[in-house]
Amino acid sequence: MALIVQKYGGTSVGSLDLIRKVAQRVIKTKTEGHEVVVVLSAMAGETDRLLGMARQMAKDPEPREVDVLISTGEQVSVALFCLAVNGMGHEARSLLGFQARILTDTIYGKARIQDIDVTRIREQLGRGRIVAVAGFQGLDERGNITTLGRGGSDTTAVALAATLKADACEIFTDVSGVFTTDPNVCQEARKLEKLTYEEMLEMASLGAKVLDIRSVEFGMKYGVPIWVRHSQTDEPGTLICEETNDMEDMIIRGVVYSRKEARITITRVPDRPGIAVAILSPISSANIVVDMIIQNTSAGGEGFTDFSFTVPKDDFEKSMLLVRDVAQRIGGEKVLGDDAIAKVSLVGVGMRNHAGVASRMFGLLAAEGINIRMISTSEIKISCVIDEKYTELAVRTLHSGFGLDRE
Amino acid sequence: MALIVQKYGGTSVGSLDLIRKVAQRVIKTKTEGHEVVVVLSAMAGETDRLLGMARQMAKDPEPREVDVLISTGEQVSVALFCLAVNGMGHEARSLLGFQARILTDTIYGKARIQDIDVTRIREQLGRGRIVAVAGFQGLDERGNITTLGRGGSDTTAVALAATLKADACEIFTDVSGVFTTDPNVCQEARKLEKLTYEEMLEMASLGAKVLDIRSVEFGMKYGVPIWVRHSQTDEPGTLICEETNDMEDMIIRGVVYSRKEARITITRVPDRPGIAVAILSPISSANIVVDMIIQNTSAGGEGFTDFSFTVPKDDFEKSMLLVRDVAQRIGGEKVLGDDAIAKVSLVGVGMRNHAGVASRMFGLLAAEGINIRMISTSEIKISCVIDEKYTELAVRTLHSGFGLDRE
Q: For residues B170 and A65, what is the distance between their CA atoms, to the nearest angstrom?
């Protein structure tokens, strides 16, 4: 008998029929002899519907009450799920954030889990019941409802699995696992059997949408094996775990891309200490997250530098205004902006032991006539900023160039 | 400065626009210098929508999970209300059943309030905030969500007013007060300025839908003055309170009617001790509530009796089956059923001091050719069962016959 935490996302519980199917699936796991804790998201579209109402009530909706509002989405899901299970002759019991004692800090809308008291969950499991915990929500120390932000139900599931010392945490979704790249862009994309937490973290950060980053961090910190599985099939899916010897011997685990950033460059900035801070502090003060930063010698001559960085596309206009202002003060020549860019990245722990991955990547892109605008690297990833129009071509080129289309 | 509890029903918060209007109204009361606790129902239609989903999930939905499901309705209302108030530059804070510490028993769907710990409400009021409490919901001692049944938000409001020792409890709804009779049936219906708890209890029990009976009981027990007011006007509404000398000197306060019952008669039953128990115990065992009961000498001869009683129309078919079975066993002649009946009632504490109300009532009905099928009386009411088709005629006749159309 194993203790299994299963999480079902919004598309997996998007209708009453689908909730019934989830109920059947969970009952199957239960009758195979396992203890099951289920974490559910809101039905697909429900959180957005509720947020839409909030925005109609106030231009800048008060975060505490937004959390009270949107946490009803998961509450509806767990109640309907338990009604279905009970209607099928099995016993299920729902627990909301405050009942499952999921304690968080008080950052409404982006709360972080601090502690879970699983006494009540264990008690219900002990009575032979399926326990359905509302994902995405928690309670702060003063008894206020909080929510964990987009993808928060993944975090609820992994945190519960960690605290319960569960044998497995299964994230059921509408894809059958983690792929070597986006199958919508590259037909040769292959499902991975296993990858490491670090690889999943990089892939999620760089654009793969399959898992919330914080849930992977949680899994890594507490050593929870995470399975990503399709909710409508019996395929085993992909296992995210610590690095093991039996992992497929691949230098590169995946190719990911993101079209969510824009690039800003100030040309011919006087190259003196403190220039980076001068440029970036107004940006960070405006709560805009800078991703890549590059500073190199300007074509305009010695003593000057060109300074480039990327920001989320949504913050592009605002950032341009701020940077133009800075450029005037510090004496840059021009401010150039480009929001038609994409970031294409290679991820894999195998890079650590293999030289020449970067040069091979640049060579593959060059051979297709794709110019590289910016580069950033870490121990297990290389990212290149390119013109947006080349995104799909670059992904396919790198995918086959690094042999990811072959078993 | 007074402490006022205001309750707004489902039709008063039936749309985002209406919630905004409620927010304005509450802010007005607040800025006039009062402390305000607001109790909100679910948006009109929401509870039924959620119940519909529950019934699609299971034939006989598990009551605990139904409560988890439908309590989201009030949660959405209080959150949207607070978002609106905060958006208008004032401070409001929502509290759900578990946060307002509304402790109930564990009868899901029909829970009764046992205790309220108002510490947190007082603390929020002390900070100058408007407090919005989700109506209809509570928490049992083990931390399960419970709901109070239809009309439960009225009870939440009056119970809060009692515990907080509020100066007034205002029930805002879509009618402007309690009327001498249903204005849809009788154009001459007049709004009452005041009536007693006992009168309101009788009127609510006998068919007036304006207030939940339990809320009136609560008000009577703890002496909470209850105002029934229209949410869209500034009219003072109707005050429900203890009997006072300045109450309008009326023998009859109102005429109420109900079409929700059906009558069952067994003719020529042997008239011996225990016959009533023999007939009614299968009915009560089936959880069917019997209202009026009449037993009189049968036209069929001495030693026999005709036995009649009323049951809710919804339980009519089931009751007929049960009674036919009993009739065979105890030797009744025929079982007659009639579900085309109505109950018309007069209510008023003035009856206590005025003889002849009953005979005047019977005379008025007889003059219109309306046959009386059954009669039941209490200290402050008289009810007659008549053929359903005469309902409106009877109501109008009694209303003018007792001078209720005159100031």
A: 24
